[in-house]
Design a protein that fits this description.
Elements lengths: L7 E4 L9 H16 L3 E4 L13 H12 L5 E2 L15 H13 L3 E4 L3 H10 L16 H4 L1 H9 L5 E4 L6 E6 L3 E6 L7 E3 L8 H11 L4 E5 L6 H11 L7 E5 L2 E2 L9 H7 L8 E2 L6 E2 L9 H9 L14 H7 L10 E2 L2 H14 L2 H14 L6 H11 L3 E6 L2 E6 L6 H9 L10 H6 L4 H13 L6 H15 L4 H8 L8 H24 L1
Parallel strand pairs: 1-2, 2-3, 9-10, 11-14
Antiparallel strand pairs: 4-5, 5-8, 6-7, 12-13, 15-16
Helix pairs in contact: 1-11, 7-8, 10-12, 13-14, 17-20, 18-20, 19-20
The structure holds one RNA strand of 75 nucleotides.
RNA sequence: GGCGCUUUCGUCUAGCGGCUAGGACACAUGCCUCUCACGCAUGGAACACGGGUUCGAUUCCCGUAGGCGCUACCA
């Protein structure tokens, strides 16, 4: 363990498609850990499976982190002194190191074809390529090294397997789970070098890169826990045991309901994104929704994800990135999988929505309005956001009226139509209209209309200053009926503010129309 | 099947031998108000089961059961 060296961690995705939200959380934890310890965060691309490479995936991943505010110090697209950072560009390095293992007798060539192995697995229930079977297979151990070299020279496809000595308890020290012990007898002679594309497998490339890149802590998903003893054995075989990184295996993200881990299908089924950004599959053309496009704020996504599997131990839940960096503690991560409670994600987004200024929200709102066919300025959009702040909609369901909180800027539009579109009809059967529009109302509204027409200053404060005393003097309570005129129903902001937003002309026009319609 | 990890309200979790088992989301109710709300207050809701260890277990140990993962020339 290099205790005195600087913390160096990495996030190393495969460019096989859009980044899964679970991967985002893994990256986030690495980032928080690195920043807290004043360490370095490396971005590496693990593209050793040439068959699964997806164009655009790498750029997608980079853009996702840019949006989320997760930054790297070294890696693909950034550079650094430990490159190259794409594994496909490091082939020569792996050739050298796999040779080292071969020369030391810690690995051997194997010529069994995938078909032969598949047949063997089919016939033998618990077939495993290990100490019990390797001497009955076609490899350099049974054929001899000379014969193996001759076959390779002739162009025979081969793989390189790691030779695992059976009967040893291999201990892995995990920062989250403590001591994990697996007997080497249950491990198989893992393929380190593939014949299919002449590249190393994850296991070999990962260990070589983490060593060469001086990674001090490997923070990754729990799915890697079963292969971590193999990794420990590889470090030892290379003679790197004393600088082996510390491991921390994170709990997985589970489906919101039912069994199993969170998948893309759950998002489709329940209506929430499982990817940070919208993804357009280059081959199928299928579009998967993303948090960004759905109107989530990056701070909310980060905060939500950070608390899925870890918490600071106090009652504070709304935490900025710098709060998270200050409070994060790997050893306090929970050990069991966390159900993905996307409803809590709504709440987090709402918390950040409420904390963001009207002006900052305005550009997004302008886009929402434009999509609904409403052209307006950022300033007016900001005013509406201000007036609609913290609003809740009441709508009818088969179970009766329900209230729904606003969690997204886009939720605002159905609630604030009346700011931009005048009521076209009035529903006399509407409870609010019926209650507040009686025979005497039209006359009262005419009085109010004429009073409003005399005002020369039509700001909210000026209208209030003029109307409040006038109303008291006349003995009127015109607000609800006035609301019927301007909104058409029983919702919306303070009437003076609304009138000011609409302007004198539009206010009077809507009143005339309502008086004409409702009599 | 084998191996490993795991188990507190519906969900995310706090708890690190002695607590009325705390918070948040969701849900329900009340208060407030020119409307709808926000907000505030209140309420229901959990230690998987069985053995130990101990004066005492949610907490430590061992089983059982459930959950999750791995078991590819994928990562």
């Amino acid at each position: 363990m290099s205790n005195n060296s600087k913390v160096r961690v990495r996030f190393a995705p495969s460019p096989t498609g859009p980044l899964h939200i679970g991967g985002v959380r893994t990256a986030l934890y690495n980032y928080l850990f690195a920043r807290q310890r004043g360490g370095e965060f490396i971005f590496r691309i693990e593209d050793t499976d040439s068959t699964r490479f997806v164009p655009g995936a790498e750029a997608y991943i980079i853009e996702s982190f840019r949006w989320l505010g997760i930054t790297f110090d070294e890696g693909v697209g950034i550079g650094g002194s430990h490159g190259p950072y794409r594994q496909s560009e490091r082939r020569d390095i792996y050739v050298r190191y796999v040779g080292q293992l071969l020369d030391a007798g810690r690995a051997y060539y194997a010529f069994d074809t995938p078909e032969e192995l598949a047949a063997r697995r089919e016939h033998e229930a618990n077939f495993q390529y290990d100490a019990s079977t390797r001497m009955s297979m076609r490899n350099s151990l049974t054929l001899g090294l000379d014969e193996a070299r001759r076959l390779i020279a002739d162009g025979t496809p081969y793989v390189v397997r790691f030779l695992i000595e059976p009967g040893e308890d291999v201990h892995v020290s995990d920062l989250i789970r403590g001591d994990v012990c697996i007997n080497s007898s249950v491990l198989d002679d893992k393929v380190l070098w593939k014949s299919a594309d002449g590249l190393p497998t994850y296991h070999l490339a990962n260990i070589v890169d983490d060593h060469l890149m001086e990674v001090t802590h490997v923070i990754r998903g729990e799915e890697w826990l079963p292969s971590s003893p193999l990794h420990v054995l590889l470090y030892r075989a290379f003679g790197w045991a004393d600088t082996m990184p510390q491991f921390a295996h994170l709990p997985l993200l589970l489906k919101p309901d039912g069994k199993g881990k969170l998948s893309k299908r759950d998002g489709d089924r329940l209506g929430f994104p499982v990817f940070p950004l919208e993804w357009h599959d280059p081959t199928s053309g299928e579009v998967s929704s993303g948090y960004r496009e759905r109107g989530y704020m990056p701070e909310a996504v980060v905060n939500f994800l950070a608390l899925l599997g870890w918490n600071p131990g106090d009652d504070q839940e709304v935490l900025s990135m710098s709060d998270l960096i200050a409070k994060f503690d790997l050893t306090k991560c929970s050990k069991n999988g966390a159900r993905f409670d996307y409803v809590k994600g709504f709440w987090f987004n709402r918390e950040y929505l409420m904390r963001r200024s009207n002006e900052a929200l305005a550009p997004d709102f302008v886009k929402v309005l434009a999509a609904a066919g409403i052209e307006t300025t950022a300033a007016r959009a900001a005013t509406v956001v201000g007036l609609m702040r913290d609003k809740v909609i009441t709508y009818d369901t088969k179970d009766g009226p329900r209230k729904r909180n606003i969690s997204f800027v886009s939720d605002l539009w159905p609630l604030c139509r009346f700011f931009f579109v005048a009521p076209a009809t009035f529903d006399r059967d509407d409870k609010f209209v019926r209650k507040n529009w009686t025979e005497a109302t039209a006359a009262e509204m005419r009085l109010l209309r004429d009073k409003l027409a005399t005002l020369t200053d039509f700001t909210s404060d000026a209208i209030k200053a003029a109307i409040d005393p006038w109303v008291a003097e006349q003995g009127l309570k015109p607000w609800n009926a006035w609301r019927v005129c301007l909104v058409g129903e029983g919702q919306g902001p303070d009437m003076y503010a609304l009138a000011a937003f609409l302007g004198q002309e539009e206010t009077l026009r809507r009143m005339d129309f309502a008086i004409a319609q409702l009599g």
